[in-house]
């Protein structure tokens, strides 16, 4: 549809003789006092107004936004581009390839299935830390990565040639979010429309929840499930309610001793406590200008951990300096400055801005911190880390605290490794110390602080403990270059911190195995091992199957914990070792000063590094170029592939959808508690031979050593269905004291314990629909499309919880699963539901009339005939979501749209 322009906003911006078509915000009353993020949404609506999906009233609603009201106005946001990583990106391209075939089957032209917005994928989630602690680790891990993932990579190379406007950044380049801020992000986009060059704000949605990192550059973007990302690629706008915006005032500057990581962990704790789920957070005030861009990006990155949709910083001189540093063209920098100033998007601390809620942080009050042992918002001041560990250890290790007079349970175990090294390990041992993840590896201040700490530690004669698996996985090659230029690399390597790969490693569960002897000792003695990583995610069971407690920390603290070797350590009072003269060495003796860090940054980072690092970025190395790549508009699926298989979503699909029906005779597949994450629902890490996924691969001739991870297998629905609800730490309340992917199978005599997958298959045979019961914050964590896809393919028709995480709720609808909430103040316990009942859901058929009921009647009948009924809130929040549900899912909806046109 053509643009309507009811407000006469279309105009021309002249930037040093270059003319751009723009949509001026000052054409809309109220625009100037809007928060920055809502101005970006307003421009989006002005530019895409078509009189049907996006109307004059929608534009007015944003201009006249009432900060105090609850969100109730639905708008359609059209992102400028789509960003993907390979775990979630592979299934996206698998689905697009499958849609091409389905369009063909429905009599349409398969080449019409193509990204309509630029789509870029960075392959960064597949490298695993198999080799570590030596100079050959990087090369060896890359080699193994290609051996494991050759099938997937061939498929992606096919996609690179078959689809228009789809680009792939090959493996070994960096982490998607760092590549985004250093290279892909435009800040202001330009595109030729009807022969005219148009300028508009860069916005994006990404298939990774940490897409919000780019908010630090003034780019509005957030994580969506792979399901919505596919729809956005195919020109479907993202349906959303105009959000509440929380103004977060920053003042002061970071004190010596504290880092950007500590700031982020503090902000995460504050915002989690305040409650920002579904809201935008925006930073403002005089203090903003004092925050370097890398720190802004670090803060934006953690948005999913505090729960907000986005965490925005406005554009200012700091933004322009960063664009120049990272090698953006002067023409682009000029456009960003002129456009931001013209549109009122330039940071002006004196302007009165409307916000829904207000928070404040004095950066000088931030102290060194870690977070753990299982959630990023559980911040612990470093000074009380030992004390807190001693409280938490009782949840992970048996035994009384005082029987050995050391204040904690103890099981000391002697270990001798393959190279003959002997040592004793105990509960709390740091088994992994990893500088990893997009959060911190893109921030030179903390990366160089770690390297300076390493130099001081080496000079004092300190060494990492022999049981610690050490690694550095930078987010881009620029990090290696400034490490080398600063001369600090040898000190990191002396402590075992060799570069192991460029990608999202330990943080996503790609930590690789521990040394065999250490792993065996941990398992045989049920030791509560810990991991310390500079990441953003530390959920249970995520980092490594042998590790029970996971802690987030800044890169210098990761090294400090490798030196300490245990979480049972007080850095103020416990010494890290002795120097040559026999003097005890404490953390304060090796901690770098802010002046040292700044001087090292100034002398070792320049714009040429970024230019070199991203030269020919889409071409790949010789390994990538040598891949045998299939050709053609539709993909030739290999029957024997265990990585890439054609999914069953469109089998038997008709041109018009069947009416939706009520749910009757449903059984509970799982009854779950609070804070069940998408890691619990759809794991990303490794899996064992006796699991349903392992059994499937073994039966298809795959050796145990070649299993790879769940994440890398996301292009194969057979593995992923079997991995759904298979996390080793998930607790299904239908079973007493059992952890892992098990349930009671009510389709069998006596309802025996069974694997979730096996039970679901039995229910499918018996034609029994399924429901899942959950608690608060169901589906928090990464934007896992497979958490929804797997749920749907297991036969789950409805998920009933106390509350949902934003992305997972919309993903469930995108797969045709009903998201229902218990009435306010109620849950399974207060309603007396044990999960052994038979459930029915009435009122679903109302959706066939084009209306969306607010509530649906749920009735649970117990085995003794006792009935519980309640009105569950139906969390289909927008008309667009109702359309998706009526069609059986978002992909079916889009497919019918393409075929019909």
Automatic annotation (TrEMBL):
Cofactor(s) for this protein?
[4Fe-4S] cluster
Q: Which GO terms describe its molecular function?
A: 4 iron, 4 sulfur cluster binding; aconitate hydratase activity; metal ion binding; RNA binding
Write down what this protein is called.
Aconitate hydratase
Aconitase/3-isopropylmalate dehydratase large subunit alpha/beta/alpha domain: from which residue to which, for each copy? 70-565
Query: Which CDD domains does UniProt cross-reference here?
Result: AcnA_IRP, AcnA_IRP_Swivel
Biological role stated in the UniProt entry: Catalyzes the isomerization of citrate to isocitrate via cis-aconitate.
Q: Which organism is it from?
A: Paeniglutamicibacter gangotriensis Lz1y
Catalytic reactions of this protein:
citrate = D-threo-isocitrate
Which Pfam families does the protein's record reference?
Answer: Aconitase, Aconitase_C
Biological process (GO), any one: propionate metabolic process, methylcitrate cycle
By sequence similarity, the record places it as follows: Belongs to the aconitase/IPM isomerase family.
Q: What is its EC number?
A: 4.2.1.3
Q: Read off the InterPro entries from this record.
A: AcnA_IRP_Swivel, Acnase/IPM_dHydase_lsu_aba_1/3, Acoase/IPM_deHydtase_lsu_aba, Aconitase/3IPM_dehydase_swvl, Aconitase/IRP2, Aconitase_4Fe-4S_BS, Aconitase_4Fe-4S_dom, AconitaseA/IPMdHydase_ssu_swvl
Pathways per UniProt: Carbohydrate metabolism; tricarboxylic acid cycle; isocitrate from oxaloacetate: step 2/2
The alphabetized UniProt keywords are: 4Fe-4S, Iron, Iron-sulfur, Lyase, Metal-binding, RNA-binding, Tricarboxylic acid cycle
Q: Classify the source by domain of life.
A: Bacteria
Q: Which residues form the Aconitase A/isopropylmalate dehydratase small subunit swivel domain?
A: 695-824
């Amino acid at each position: 549809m053509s643009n309507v322009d009811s407000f006469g906003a279309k105009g021309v911006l002249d930037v040093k003789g270059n003319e751009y078509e723009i949509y001026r915000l000052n054409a809309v009353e109220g625009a100037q006092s809007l928060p920055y993020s809502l101005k970006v949404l307003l421009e989006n609506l002005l530019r895409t107004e078509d009189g049907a999906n996006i109307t004059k009233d929608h534009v007015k609603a944003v201009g006249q936004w009432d900060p105090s009201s609850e969100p109730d106005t639905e708008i359609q946001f059209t992102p400028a581009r789509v960003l993907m990583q390979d775990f979630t990106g592979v299934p996206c391209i698998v689905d697009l390839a499958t849609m091409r075939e389905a369009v063909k089957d429905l009599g349409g032209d398969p080449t019409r299935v193509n990204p309509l917005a630029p789509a870029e994928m960075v392959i960064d989630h597949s490298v695993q830390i198999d080799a570590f602690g030596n100079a050959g680790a990087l090369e060896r891990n890359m080699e193994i990565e290609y051996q494991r993932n050759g099938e997937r990579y061939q498929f992606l190379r096919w996609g690179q040639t078959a689809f228009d406007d789809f680009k792939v950044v090959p493996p070994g380049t960096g982490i998607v979010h760092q590549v985004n801020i250093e290279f892909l992000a435009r800040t202001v986009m330009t595109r030729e429309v009807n022969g005219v060059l148009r300028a508009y704000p860069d916005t994006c949605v990404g298939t990774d929840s940490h897409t919000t990192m780019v908010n630090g550059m003034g780019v509005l973007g957030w994580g969506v499930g792979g399901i919505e990302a596919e729809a956005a690629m195919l020109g479907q706008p993202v349906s959303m309610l105009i959000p509440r915006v929380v103004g977060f005032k920053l003042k002061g500057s970071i004190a010596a001793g504290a880092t950007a990581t500590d700031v982020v962990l503090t902000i995460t704790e504050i915002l989690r406590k305040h409650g920002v789920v579904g809201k935008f957070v925006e930073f403002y005030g005089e203090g903003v200008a004092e925050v370097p861009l890398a720190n802004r990006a670090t803060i934006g990155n953690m948005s999913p951990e505090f729960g907000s949709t986005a965490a925005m910083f406005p554009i200012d001189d700091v933004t322009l300096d960063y664009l120049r540093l990272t090698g953006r063209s002067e023409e682009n920098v000029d456009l960003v400055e002129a456009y931001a100033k013209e549109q009122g998007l330039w940071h002006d601390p004196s302007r009165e801005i409307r916000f829904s809620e207000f928070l404040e942080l004095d950066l000088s009050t931030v102290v060194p911190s870690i977070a753990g042992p299982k959630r990023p918002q559980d911040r612990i001041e470093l000074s009380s880390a030992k004390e807190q560990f001693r409280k938490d250890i009782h949840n992970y290790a048996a035994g009384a605290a005082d029987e050995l007079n050391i204040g904690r349970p103890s099981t000391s175990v002697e270990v001798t490794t393959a190279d003959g090294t002997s040592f004793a390990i105990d509960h709390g041992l740091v088994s992994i110390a990893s500088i990893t993840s997009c959060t911190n590896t893109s921030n030179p201040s903390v990366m160089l602080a770690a390297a300076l700490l390493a130099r001081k530690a080496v000079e004092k004669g300190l060494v990492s403990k022999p049981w610690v698996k050490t690694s550095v996985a930078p987010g881009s090659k620029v990090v290696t270059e400034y490490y080398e230029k600063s001369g600090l690399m040898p000190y990191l390597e002396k402590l075992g911190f060799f570069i192991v790969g460029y990608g999202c490693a330990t943080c996503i569960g790609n930590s690789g195995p521990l040394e065999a002897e250490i792993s065996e000792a941990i398992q045989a003695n049920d030791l509560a091992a810990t991991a310390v990583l500079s990441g953003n995610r530390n959920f249970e069971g995520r980092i490594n199957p042998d590790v029970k407690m996971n802690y987030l920390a800044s890169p210098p603290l990761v090294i400090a914990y490798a030196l300490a070797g245990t979480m049972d350590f007080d850095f103020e009072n416990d010494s890290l070792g002795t120097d040559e003269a026999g003097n005890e060495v404490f953390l304060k003796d090796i901690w770098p000063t802010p002046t040292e860090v700044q001087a090292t940054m100034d002398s070792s980072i320049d714009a040429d590094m970024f230019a070199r690092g991203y030269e020919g970025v889409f071409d790949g190395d010789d390994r990538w170029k040598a891949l045998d790549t299939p050709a053609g508009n539709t993909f030739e699926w290999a029957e024997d592939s265990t990585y890439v298989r054609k999914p069953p979503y469109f089998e038997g699909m008709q041109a018009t959808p069947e009416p939706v029906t009520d749910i009757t005779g449903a059984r509970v597949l799982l009854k779950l508690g609070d804070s069940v994450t998408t890691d619990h629902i759809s794991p990303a890490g490794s899996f064992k031979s006796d699991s349903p996924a392992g059994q499937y691969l073994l039966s298809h001739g795959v050796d145990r050593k070649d299993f790879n991870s769940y994440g890398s297998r996301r292009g194969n629905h057979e593995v992923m269905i079997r991995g759904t609800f298979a996390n080793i730490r998930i607790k299904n309340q239908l079973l007493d004291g059992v952890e892992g992917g098990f349930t009671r199978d009510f389709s069998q005599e006596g309802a025996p314990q069974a694997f979730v997958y096996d039970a679901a298959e039995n229910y499918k045979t018996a034609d029994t629909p399924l429901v899942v019961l959950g608690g608060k914050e169901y589906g928090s964590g990464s934007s896992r499309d497979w958490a929804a896809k797997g749920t749907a393919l297991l036969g789950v028709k409805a998920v009933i919880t106390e509350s949902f995480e934003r992305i997972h709720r919309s993903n469930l609808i995108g797969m045709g699963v009903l998201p229902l909430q218990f009435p306010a103040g109620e849950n399974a316990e207060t309603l007396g539901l044990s999960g052994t009942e038979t459930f029915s859901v009435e009122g679903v058929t109302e959706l066939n009339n084009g209306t969306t009921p607010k509530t649906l009647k749920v009735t649970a009948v117990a085995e003794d005939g006792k009935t519980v009924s309640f009105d569950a809130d139906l969390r289909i929040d927008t008309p667009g979501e109702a359309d998706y549900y009526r069609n059986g899912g978002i992909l079916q909806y889009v497919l019918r749209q393409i075929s019909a046109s």
